[in-house]
Each structure stands twice: as C-alpha cells, then as structure tokens.
Amino acid sequence: MSESDSDDWSEEWVPYSQRNEWSDVTPIPQDDGEHPVVAIAYSPKFREVFDYFRAVLAHKEKSRRALELTADALRLNPANYTVWQYRRNILRALDCDLYEELNYLDEVIRDNAKNYQVWHHRRVIVEMLNDSSKELELTKIALERDNKNYHAWQHRQWAIKTFDLFENELTFVDRLIAEDIRNNSAWNQRFFVLKHFGFTPEVVQRETQYTMNRIRVVKNNESAWNYLGGILRQCADESYNQNSDVLAFCEELYANGVRSPYLLAFLIDMYREQCLQQCDTAESEVLSRKVYNLCSDMSKTHDIVRSKYWQYVADQLKSKLSQK
Prior knowledge:
Elements: H1 3-7, H2 44-58, H3 64-76, H4 81-94, H5 98-111, H6 116-129, H7 135-145, H8 150-163, H9 169-179, H10 184-197, H11 201-217, H12 222-232, H13 244-255, H14 261-277, H15 281-302, H16 307-322
Helix pairs in contact: 2-3, 3-4, 4-6, 5-6, 6-8, 7-8, 9-10, 10-12, 11-12, 13-14, 14-15, 15-16
C-alpha cells in the first residue's frame, strides 16, 4: 500500500468519528506533553485511528470492531508491538478462526517482509494452531523475493526445528546455492540442517567434496570457504588442519595462480597448525616459512586492510616456535 493510500482521507475510508457504530467511543488523543521538543507530524488518518485505538485499549474492549481497528492501525504502522499484542488478546478472547489470521498475515508479510513484529505474530499464531503446514511455502516465497531475508530464514529455521521438517531441506538449500553460489544464508542453512542429523565421518567427507567442487566454480567465494572450515572443524577423529584432500586442493589452487585471500587464509591456518604439531625441526622450518611468506603477501597485497592482523599471526607463530 502506498503512503498516500494509507495516510490520506479517501472516499472508500470513513473516519471513525463519522461511523455510527463508534459513536459510543470517545477517542483519546496522544499526549506528547505541553511543549514537545520535536512534535511528530502525524497524518489526520493516523491520528484518528490511533486515538480510537487508545480508547479501545484503555477500556480493554475485545470485540470484532476492535479487531478491525487493529488492522487499520497496523496498516499505518505494522511495527507497533502494542497493537500486535492487543490483536492477539482479541483473537484469544473471541476464539477467532486462526486460519483466517494466517491468510491475513500472508498479505501483511508480503508487504512487510523485513518487519520483526509481523513474523513474531505469525510464530505465535502457528504455535496456537500447532500447525506449520504453510510455513515452508510462505518462507520460500519470501526468500524468492529476497534470498537473504533474515526474518524469513529465522522463521523457517524455527518452523523446521519446532515441527521436525528437516527431511527435504537439503534439496531446497542445494537449489538456492545452485542459483546463487554466494548466498551466505543458504550455506548457513545447509550447516543448520546437517548439524541436526550429525556430522559423521561420511557426512564430513561428502560435504568437503561438495564444497570444494563449488569453490572450483568460484574461487573467491567467502561463503564457501567459511563453510568448508566449519565442516572440517566437525571432524572428531582427525585434525581440521591435517585433512590431506583439502590441503592438496588448496595447494593445487595456489599452484595454478589463484590468490583469493580466503584461500591464502586457509593455507595459513593449515600450515600454522601443522608447524606447531611438527616434531621434525627441518619440516617445521619449511612450514613456518610458508606461513611467514603468506602472511606477508596478505598484509602487503591481498588483505591490506588487515595487515596488522597478519603481522600479528606471523609474530605469534615465531613466539610459539621459540618456546618449543
């Protein structure tokens, strides 16, 4: 709804002060004090609706007309927590059809997909119904419009976890990653699903190969590199930094001229940990030199913004090696 549609008087919208069914209600104006520092320029319609809402709230009226009044108020300000909370109170008091409320929310979310209060209200209604049958489709539609909508992802994760809807989620996530390989939210969702089922050695191996294949397509993809690190840290029987397949993969990319800062950071982590675990002095010397060179490249060329950090990484390794 446009601002003019929602705020201006129109032929279709009749002011509450002109409605016979509201003649018994005395509106309560907003009290901003005698000398407000910065008075808000409310539109006449906004002022009218909320003056009547304050009157209904003061008298604790829970009626069908009060429910319709909350809808008007929310069209004007869908982020108003008090209105949403009072709407829920009315729905409970009148024992309303909550499936109608879900249909109402479909429209509200369509126009206010990044509004926390709207999604919170949706969650409460779904909990009251104990029915999540529409939630995956709803969030799917919201994510088609904006595949990084935090509130839609949060609601989807809540529904999946609360109602055990994990079964087909990997297929959904894989499609999103195929459509946008840099979609960090989809990579995060993949990890969320796998964590539920458990990171067995087979899962870690499969996901490692899956991620390396994606990195081969886009080398400079921070989302995939972060996911790969997260997966390897789930290894129970093997150090993340000793995964020979991943090390060979990273060294192959480096040998082929790839200089993504995410690749270099990965190599630094792997070489550094191997160096600290190495008992052979000569081998430790080789690994430490690799770390120092890569840290130098990062600080001078590939990640200048964090140059001091990479200097710190190199200095810390030197300090630890001197104590061995």
